[in-house]
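TODO from last week: model Ig-like domain-containing protein.
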Amino acid sequence: APTHVTISGPTQARVGDVVPLTCSTAPSNPPAEIKWMVGGRQIRNATSRTSVSPEGGWITISNITAVIEPNKRSLVVICHGLNMQLTENVVSTYTVNVLCK
């Protein structure tokens, strides 16, 4: 299973902004599957790609965009890296703070 997953993207945004987010796994074998939760809702149409890791195994990378909704102070994003063969789940949580006027 991957030892960790990493979420990257902006840490601050304004209401209405479209925020690009990337989740990448540490190497795993077989390749890990990525699942996203944004604001408590699962994202079903996220695309992922896998590449061979120089350290062995595969790295999985997934990109999504999220829109900052009105009346929110922050957007909590969770990325799950799952290895279906081992039924292991590695989780990372990321927060985008909403800038107010």
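Done. The mean pLDDT is 94.
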